[in-house]
Amino acid sequence: MSSIAATPKPAPESWVNTLIAFDKRTTGFAINTAVFMLVLSVACGLFQVFARFIMSTPSDWTEVLTRFALIWMVYMGAGVALRNGAMVSVDLMHRKLPPVWRKKLDWLIATVTLSLLGVMIYWGFFIAWRVRFQNVAGLEISMAWAYLAIPVGALFAVIAVLAHLFDPLRNELDTAL
To answer: Of the four listed, 2, 104, 162, 171, which is most buried by Cβ atoms within 10 Å?
Structure first.
């Protein structure tokens, strides 16, 4: 009987803690991917300039790879921005409302954002599937790899929006003028 009494009950918000921990890992992966894609696009741009003006033989693959890297950088970075509260922002309204209404506003913003992300996930996978046989000139890979940035980035953003709803970070307010 004492073993039953000694077993700790899980905290009522343990799923929120699990979500926050999962979000930290996914947000870390997303920011690292976005930074890598930025570095890749800069490296490709520098190589393109070197090849075109120094070697007088422009490469045909660097422009396309730069474009793909920038697309992935933006969609992976969007989730990180949403997690930090730096995207769609209604700061003045949020500051002026009483705490009860702030929470309702947060839920409204999260609902609208999650709805948009749901549309992006659905149609992003749909279009990626539709163009899977179309190859990109210069790289000879499927165009689906570029379109997959939309639903993949939106999936990361869903996690970030949920984590922001239950553990809000309002970092943009700290640096606002």
So the answer is: 162
